[in-house]
Amino acid sequence: MTNPATQAARAAFKQFLDRDLGLFVNGGPQRAHSGRWLDVFNPATGEPIARVPDADSVDVDRAVASAHEAFEQRRWSGLRPADRERILLQLADVLERHGEELAQLETLNQGKSINVARAIEVGATVEYVRYMAGWATKIHGETLDVSIPFPPGAKYTAFTRKEPVGVVAGIVPWNFPLMIAVWKLIPALAAGCTVVIKPSPETPLTALRLAELAIEAGIPPGVFNVVTGGRECGAALAAHPRIAKISFTGSTPTGKLVGAAALQNLTRFSLELGGKNPAVMLADVDVDQAIQGVLAGGFLNQGQVCAAVSRVYVHRSQYRRIADGLADIALQMKIGPGCDPDAQINPLVSAAHRERVERHIAVAKEAGLRFLAGGAAVEGPGFYVRPTVIADVPPDAAIIRDEVFGPVIALVPFDDPQDALRLANASPYGLAASLWTNDLRAAMNMVREIDAGTVWVNAHVPLDPNMPFGGMKQSGMGREFGKGAVESFTETKSICIAH
Ligand code: NAD
């Protein structure tokens, strides 16, 4: 039986879905100029659940104009930092109050487990908002000693100020729609910027609801706008001359397009892109801990996690135990809709994405690779793929090289840790990696050698708002989280006073 809180949350999001959803511009819903609509689906059934506007460049221009006017009028940056902090903390409280409604809505639209929606999409997001709110009152420049030699005898005092960069565009993927929108929105707001968020066309609902809740929390109209749409909308935003900074999360090919468009206007940008993340398990690995860690890091959100572990290099002495252990559990995982809290594998986000994942699996089968578990979609409605474990994979196989972004783990044995390190680094990506050992010396030496923006030891995937997150190589440019994230939404101004 569903409890009263769950029922109330369902009633709240049904009310939201029953509304005629618009773009969110200047503090309220706005009809799209484009006159086009995008259908939004429930991945567990394949049925449509809502429709949102498919914004064109005129719609993008209106949303940017709204954010630009709010910025020029200093509606947000003109507040005392303590007031910005207080309002962001209020937003955290509002999100927490509406947490069950947001979690249910995300599960319905994205397909993820309600447990993950509650704990991460909402729980971790609320903590992130509170963490970032605190930076609003801690932004500071420096005083600088300078040695300017003229005119003779002149004295100077120099200092820097961190000023908000202007209107920020946040372009968001579909895997953690609410959380990643917030990763962009809140540090930009803490810095005093105004924002236009573009969610993914597959998962636009929680961003629209977030915008309504932001107004409830006291964020002034125009400070946070949402445009829904696909490539045309994203490209118009990336190329808009009034955008001062783009914060993009998505695939590497799209990220390159965004970077190229941004350069035309010298718009600042940061890119959080794809990954093909290795786990390296040394001979002394704690087998049970490693199996649990790989399952959590590889199958969380059906592997639709940029930092998910997808290549597992295991010392040959432990290889059989780890391969069998992973396969045993994968074979028994319960598959079902995200609203079933006991289901461990839920649908992928869309039919198109399931097809992409199936193509990667088909290539692995054609190459004759050994499947210990999974390797197939599930018949029937909904976009399910079985959790898949592939063993004895040659280090240069396509399934090792290409980002799958699905529930697929490939295992490779090794004899020499230096070989494992070389294989782990033999990828164009460099987002995240993990090392599994209790040998302190080996761990301390190897973490320095791994090409990845984040390296975990005896864990894979936990993030923290205070821990910078982002990619090396083709996994991106710039870092989210921490003080650096807030500073990335500022310009440094030098002030030099002769006296
Ligand atoms: P995607 O690149 O297809 O789309 C990302 C966003 O960009 C969407 O909102 C999309 O509509 C928009 N877009 C599409 N074309 C555009 C254009 N020309 N200009 C501007 N915007 C455009 O990615 P996706 O399929 O939504 O997400 C999956 C990918 O995201 C995976 O590769 C994954 O690794 C990556 N990802 C990375 C991180 C990270 O933090 N590094 C986090 C989550 C996902």
Short descriptors:
16 helices; 41% helix; single chain; Aldehyde Dehydrogenase, Chain A, domain 1; 21% strand; globular; 7-stranded mixed beta sheet; Aldehyde Dehydrogenase, Chain A, domain 2; alpha/beta; 499 residues; binds nicotinamide-adenine-dinucleotide; 22 strands; 6-stranded mixed beta sheet
| Small ligands present | nicotinamide-adenine-dinucleotide
> What gross morphology would you assign?
globular
Number of strands: 22
Text of the CATH class of the largest domain: Alpha Beta
How many angstroms separate the termini? 75 Å
| Major sheet summary line | 7 strands, mixed
Instruction: Based on the coordinates given, report the CATH architecture of the largest domain.
Output: 3-Layer(aba) Sandwich
Characterise this structure.
The chain has 16 helices and 22 strands. With 499 residues, it is of the alpha/beta class. It has two domains: 4-273 and 476-496, Aldehyde Dehydrogenase, Chain A, domain 1 (3-Layer(aba) Sandwich); 277-464, Aldehyde Dehydrogenase, Chain A, domain 2. The strands form six sheets. Strands 14-15-16-13-12-18-19 form a seven-stranded mixed beta sheet, sandwiched between helices. Strand 15, helix 13 and strand 16 form a beta-alpha-beta unit. It is globular, with a radius of gyration of 24 Å. The model has no long low-confidence stretch (mean pLDDT 97). Bound molecules: nicotinamide-adenine-dinucleotide. Nicotinamide-adenine-dinucleotide binds at residues 171-175, 198, 200-201, 230-231, 234-235, 238, 249-251, 254, 257-258, 272-275, 306, 403, 405, 431, 471, 476. Nicotinamide-adenine-dinucleotide (NAD) binds at residues 171-175, 198, 200-201, 230-231, 234-235, 238, 249-251, 254, 257-258, 272-275, 306, 403, 405, 431, 471, 476.
